[in-house]
User: Fold these one by one.
Assistant:
Number 1:
Amino acid sequence: MRLEREQPWRYLAPAGLLLALVTVYPLAHVLWLSLERRSLLDPAPPAFAGLENYARLAADERFWNALGNTAYFVGVSVSLELMLGLAFALALQRAFRGRAALYGIILLPWAVPTAVSARMWEWMFEPDIGVLNYLLGAQVNWLGSPAWALNAAVLMDVWKSTPFVALLLIAGLQSIPQDLYRAAAVDGASRWTVLTRITLPLLAPMILVALLFRTIDAFRVFDAIYVLTGGGPADSTETLSIYAYRVLFQSLEFGYGSALAVSVFALVAVFALVYRMLLRKVLP
Amino acid sequence: MRIVALVLLAAYCLAPFLWQVVTSLKPAAELVSLPPLLPSRPSAEHYVAIFAGHPLVRIIANSAIVAACTTALALALGALAAYALSMLRVRGRAAVLGVVLAISMFPPIATVSPLFLLLSALGLRDTLAALVLTYSTFSLPLAVWLLASFFDALPRELYVAARVDGCSAFGALWRVVLPLAAPGLAAAALLVFIFAWNEFLFALAFTATEASRTLPVGIALFPGLHEVPYGEIAAASVVATVPVVALAFAFQRRIVEGLTAGAVKG
């Protein structure tokens, strides 16, 4: 049925205007800034520099170091989160009493502000009076040694994000038809067969969704590491976002910093497109 | 087996936060060594110190104002857009939702430098308005997706009936759709509020003084003269976390619904 005077665009316009002003326009502007020689310290007006900033980036060892750190952080933390999250989801799969209270507890690491989590973990990582070394009976210099610091950041991220992965996977498990499990039980299938032939294949789309969200989120990691280590010691935990932020707001080099920021955007976009292709293949 | 897994999971999620609570209650003298794990007597000295010696009240008020205004703005604009997308006939609905989804994946670092220049040009640096504007926009994609999926679950006949009975298009939204989608609104409001309460990067870049500083930045930059004041940081952390944790416990079902719906539909 056709109704008069619906004019849907009037309802979309306010949100559209805000998105255009605060996300789309800045994105276009950052591309432009990345082509400029521009420093907030330099009174000279910004000058068009072509691809100069990108040439500098390609030859910048600190950029490659940050890219390596980011890749390591994403790879290790996302795979650990997925494995742990899957284990938790399988353990919680069936309904039981008290599940609601458990959901509240599971949400806690996700709900705590990341900057606050970082200071909580900084205290636990303290080498002499921190609770982690005390409980482990170890003398690890978690945040002070380049060999450990990035792993410490991974540990914190795993704590924070595993519950989110588990929640997604639980939702995925609940959408698997119970008939399949009954049929498998009638056929006398082993637990392992049920897991590898029914659960995991049917959970694959949700696993991909969880991977997509976590990869993109981990790739742009900022607060967790910025507060925990500030990128140190010796740049051993400096990720792309942190390097870009330092160039932008500590060195005030808006041209080069914008080029770094664009590189983060481009890499995230590539991830998103690859996952989208994979998801299209998996979904019927 | 199951019980062991459940207890492990609960301990895993709770332990770091509980340790922070314990730390915040320990007298300063007991913080410099381990054992003892637990304070000999709980002390409120760190809580007294953070409220007496720091502009913490101002910072808490900033966070509350920013999160509340962001939630109101994002929900209002998000509901209008979602209504158009799910009840009114919009050509290119899939394309619009696709663009909104793509925007939600923008890394904040990619837009922080031009936004900084824009907000400076508008004279909004170091104001709460700058944060509200940025946060509302960055949480709009989530609000639009969530609300559109909740509106989609309502039968369109309700909307048509309201229009036939003489409601304007806006009246149908206000009197029929919104009341019926109240649980969805609550889920979206909770997620947006928690996002705004916790955001760090923009707050760090756009605020300079206590006039607009929010809790995450205040705690990250917590002043220490010689040693890190772990007791006071712990107390401030507990204060900053209690509101969101309370929301998480009180509305866990709505939040889980929102989180999974947001992910699945996305």
Number 2:
Amino acid sequence: MAGDAPIRVLVLEDSKPTRQLLDLCFDKRRYALTYRLDGVSGLETALSHDFDLLLLDIGLPGMDGWEVLKRIREHKDEAELPVIVLTAHHDTVLTKQGPLFSSIDGFLPKPFDVSELDETVERVVGNRLAAGNT
Amino acid sequence: MTRKIWQGATILVAGLGLLGAVLLWFELLSPEVAYEFSSIIYPLVSVGAGALVMTAAGKVDGTERLAWRLVGLGIVFWGLGETIWVWYSFIAHVEVPYPGWADVLYLAGYPIMFIGVLFMPHLRLLRYERIRLTLDTVAGSVAIAAVMWTAYLADVVYLDPEAGLAERFVNILYPLVDVVLLIALLILAVRRTTRRFDPRLLALATGILVTAFADITYVFQLEEGTYVDGGPLDALWLVGYALFAVAGYYVTKPPVEREEQAPGQKLWQVVAPYTAVAALFALTAIELGRGGGFLQWASFSVSLIVIARQGFAIKETREVVAKQRDNLVASVSHELRTPLTSIRGFSQLLNSRWDSLDDERRREMIATIDDQSRYLTRLVTDLVDVARNEVIAVELDVEPISAAALIEDVVLTTADDDRATGPIGVGMPSDFQVVGDRSRLKQILVNLVTNAVRYGNGDIAIEAMTDHGQAVIEIHDNGPGVAKKHEEAIWERFERGAHRLDSSVPGSGIGLAIARGLAIAHDGSLTYRRSTLLGGACFRLTLPLSDAPEPAEELEPALSLPSS
């Protein structure tokens, strides 16, 4: 079943080079990527459409990533929309975002290894498919 | 009220006060006329000044409004006290009841004004800085109280066995409230603010000083029996009220700000808050021969406070240094990681998937790596420049540049970043030429537009014009703007205004410092104001105009470029 429908990934990232990088990291035969560049329109898209995965940057214009995540979690839990956070702010993340941090499925500090991204995405998507099959 | 009405009202109240003061001080009127004259003019000037300050407070916001309302209310209370007094003695022709409502209102004016002064705007302080400044103020207050007590209060504050309870109370309060005024003055002097030289605060402080001096002299004259109603002393209070009216007028005008120096850099700045303490020690030395036990206790407690204050000052310095270091590390490391992400990611992809990528793709990826490493190089260079504070010394390659072409270039560059903002509106009545280094000017403007994208809410406008022989380029946005208390701090290196604790908003905090440094290197300036156009932030860049002839082609009256 995984081979048929593409895996829908929403990417919230404001930096153009990072978006280009993410675009190259995903195999287009398997993944369908949607991009949003700021927090507000990203939140809107995440709530109004179904996605299998959200790649979330933290430093977004308009509304920051943690705020976006907080509002998403008011409507969609971890089973409905898994989230992987990509961020260049590592230092304060764990201390500041305690309960919110436990609601994410992956955390990739920038600069990340492409292989690490692949593994994390595969793990999260694999879990989701496994859960979907039972 | 319009500006004309404000000016008129101020001139009326302050002018009347000063005219009265001149007439009374130089005793130009006969004693009877002077008495009647002051009976009429006192209620008018005092209530007028108070009402003016209270109304003017409507022109400012937040706690500053509350502060000026309270100061105005205090003055109105004094004025009502004067009015009641005049009513009894001048209109009803009866003995003024003592203590009576006039005294209640008059005495209430002092603490109300004091609280108003406490609410005056000041910079946000660090923890130890706050403790240290509080100790400074307490030490100064103890010293003021002790000096005043020794100098005259001990002689004039006493319990009259004949008097009733209320009268005794009022008798004691009258001399004491001036200690409150002097402490208010001390607070105005010690407080950290960028407005220390603002005319409104200067007028208020001078008004308080004159009033306190008049009050104290009055107490002396009463003791000696030399006070005359409508005599020269009455002139001083009128001067005080006139000064309050002037303060009210300046409240309606934009404040004059001056960058706050880090405290304690010059000797006089360290010594100034302790002038009162020094006076106390001097007085102690003089009085010791007469066995001033009270003074010894005061000096002793002040010494303890000074020691504690020094301890906190050391902690404060450490706190500031640690905070700056943390800010620097957090913001700079974030800024460096973003280009590193692309460099690392693309090189890994090239390495692992070389065969599956076509030539075009590979070339694109290598170009991005090159681009991002250049960006990284510039960041490091800027960082070193700023850390050495050498931005102003950069070498400029100056030439005449068309402002329209420069702005178009900036709009295209920032639009290339395809952010989710609306089109950037450009308002430019006609093109003009500026003198500058093309790449550096672009760097300044790109920085400002990027800020507008980051902190604004989507609407951005660039306005370009010539003004008084200078080129002016303004970048407006519709975001929350810069909070008053951060208006100076945003220019400091590694300072990120309200975002300093909010690591999610990107920025190293060096952009504006560099931009301003570059503007100054161009013999121009970069300043902040609130945008009247879009309601958010407005950064105003001024540059020298070029003498070179205008370019031949006419520019479109207003061009608007979509951002993506």
Number 3:
Amino acid sequence: MEQLQKTSPIRPENLQKEAYLESLLAEGERTGILSSAEADEIRYNLLELLASRLEHLYGKTTSSVPDEWASDLFDCLLYTMGAWLQISPTPEAALDSLRNTSTAFLYQKGLRLMHLFLADIRRMAEEIYATRVPCRNGFYQSAVTRELPGFLASCRPEKNAHQHGSSIFYTPAYMEKGISGVWYMRQYAAALLLENRFCSLFPEEDLQTVLDTPDGRTGNIFLAVLSQVSLNLLAKGIPSCAPVPAEALASLPRTEGELLARLYTAFGNANSYLRACLPSIAKELTMYR
Amino acid sequence: MDNKLQAFRKSAANLTRAKDVGAVLEYNEESVKHGLVLTQEQAIRLLETKDEELRYNGRLEFGEGILGKLIIAFCDSPYMNKQNYSQNLERLVEIFYYYKGEMWELLSDDELIDYMKSFFNGSCEGSLELLESRELDSLARALRRK
């Protein structure tokens, strides 16, 4: 007998990571899971929550604030609650929470999540600093020694969980798209830590040879090191970051597809982060043929 | 204003109000001691003025708001009487929100109201024009220079 599968009218493609709560509300209304009156009541409750947060933050001295302040805090509330709703098992469960749980309670849950994320970032930042790669890449060094600690010093989830600053110029090799704020920084720190750990597997002098180049001084250092390790693996069969003699490069596969297939085999059980970077490495290695 | 907040405010607008008028009228209990009361119509107009001024000055109000504090502060002024009470309150609301922003949020509500009351009852001798264009303007400029 064929199994019946429950289908959902909610279209996941209509849910935006950066505006999860708003898009969930809209999707709830579009599908009829929420009536217009219910959606309006949720919106009204969110405004009440905003008023109570404004009073908590500024109420000792004022009974009104400039719209920009209110608007910024509202973005923060939506972001924080959206983050919590996003970790619900399904969008239907998230919508159910939104309809049946008080907005204040959902906000507290979201805020707790933000604090947990922040504690994660703090822990990772310490290890990132301890394992930082000795190189002359100013963007990288600045991200590790200034911008990441700067974010931790200035982040107050109650006020700016939705912001991660725009002054971090160093980008990890792979970042999920459409995320921001504390969530983004948690992924940023996790990526940077993984990249540091990978680089620290190789001798310092080899790293410096690879990274003391125009590309190594400005681009992503992990990709530069991974590219060199890939060359070694394919040409000599050893996971090293040492320079590869020109004659050894002759044995490299000729096409990007072949290179990628060999890289997937060579890196075997490597984690998903590293494997996600292999297509760009294969593309780069075609230059060495 | 940011679209998100504006959109939410529009859609929830029909769920607000009503209780606000009652809250303003409750202050009549205090002002009547000085022979001053607001009618329901005047209370509604005062609330409309407040909303308009908040919009005009790009501000969002929360908590109990400012009307009660203004009523309490000014209802015992020797320059308030039955004829000008309601209109003066409307003008005071306008002046308050304008200077709240002009003073770069440097003064708390209570501090600004204290200054307004002190100037109005003192050097301005009940003139709202002097309060606005002379005293508070000088104060705002002095605060911004600091």
